[in-house]
């Protein structure tokens, strides 16, 4: 009996330009990913950028997702804030609404929700915040997929509510013993060598394991892989990882289509 073919999603954070500031190369990277997480205006993005990014994703037939973050433009949503579960719920409902409006106006569909930055990392370990975010998704768009750090509290909260979830792994980040990402404030948090980053991804998809910074293997489920679109070599890396995954006979498609 043959094993089922391996499948993974490639997602990228997009729409993170704001006003006069341009960040990332969204149009080019859309050719190599299957899901786009579009900033909702809190950590990045603005109405015009959201509209344009939604249209680009639709033209490229890339699944659109909301990418809600903390209200912190200066810190790009990567600084933790002392928010309550109720505040987390309100923020996520508000931001999903922003993306949903533009998607509906363009004749498209919203397929997933993925929290951004500090909100994402906080929800990975804080059950109360995770449950509030999952509840917001469930009450606003229960048919969408909730993206969260593989094995995290957010994934558990989504499963508990009956949402479809996607365990997310990262190509360019290192891991700790508990399966969390190494903080960006610490040394060696980022993997800058693209060959090393892609080897890590292929192993996570094929073997369900990742080597932690402590040298111990961690079991991990890889439903979707995050590619950061704001790095200096983001386009080159997106092209490279797509080529390697296809060479390894790994099918690339968004979670909702499986």
How are the elements arranged and paired?
Layout: E1 7-14, H1 26-29, E2 35-39, H2 47-59, E3 63-67, H3 85-105, E4 110-113, H4 117-125, H5 127-140, E5 145-149, H6 153-161, E6 164-170, H7 194-207, E7 209-211, E8 217-219, E9 224-227, H8 234-247, E10 251-252
Parallel strand pairs: 1-2, 1-9, 1-10, 2-3, 3-4, 4-5, 5-6, 6-9
Antiparallel strand pairs: 7-8
Helix pairs in contact: 2-3, 3-5, 4-5, 5-6
EC number: 3.5.2.9
Catalytic activity: 5-oxo-L-proline + ATP + 2 H2O = L-glutamate + ADP + phosphate + H(+)
Function: Catalyzes the cleavage of 5-oxoproline to form L-glutamate coupled to the hydrolysis of ATP to ADP and inorganic phosphate.
* CA(first)-CA(last) distance: 21 Å
Q: Overall mean pLDDT score?
A: 93
What can be said about the biggest beta sheet? 7 strands, parallel, barrel
Rg calc: 17 Å
Overall, the morphology is globular
Please report the total strand number as a whole number: 10
Helix segment count?
8
């Amino acid at each position: 009996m043959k094993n089922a073919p391996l499948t993974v999603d490639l997602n990228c954070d997009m729409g993170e330009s704001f006003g006069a500031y341009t960040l990332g190369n969204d149009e080019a990277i859309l050719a190599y990913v299957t899901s786009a997480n579009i900033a909702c205006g809190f950590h990045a993005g603005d109405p015009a950028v959201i509209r344009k990014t939604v249209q680009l994703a639709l033209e490229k037939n890339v699944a659109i997702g909301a990418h809600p973050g903390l209200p912190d433009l200066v810190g790009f949503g990567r600084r933790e804030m002392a928010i309550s579960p109720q505040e987390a719920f309100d923020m996520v409902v508000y931001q999903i609404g922003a993306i949903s409006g533009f998607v509906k106006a363009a004749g498209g569909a919203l397929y997933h929700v993925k929290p951004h930055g500090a909100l994402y990392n906080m929800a990975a370990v804080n059950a109360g915040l995770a449950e509030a975010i999952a509840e917001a998704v469930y009450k606003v768009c229960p048919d969408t997929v909730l993206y969260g750090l593989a094995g995290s509290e957010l994934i558990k909260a989504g499963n508990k509510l009956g949402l479809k979830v996607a365990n997310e792994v990262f190509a360019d980040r290192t891991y700790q013993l508990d399966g969390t990402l190494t903080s960006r404030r610490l040394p060696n948090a980022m993997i800058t060598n693209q060959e090393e980053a892609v080897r890590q991804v292929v192993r996570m998809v094929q073997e369900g394991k990742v080597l932690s910074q402590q040298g111990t293997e961690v079991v991990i489920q890889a439903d979707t892989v995050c590619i950061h679109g704001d790095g200096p070599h983001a386009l080159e890396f997106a092209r490279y990882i797509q080529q390697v995954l296809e060479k390894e006979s790994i099918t690339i498609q968004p979670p909702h289509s499986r």
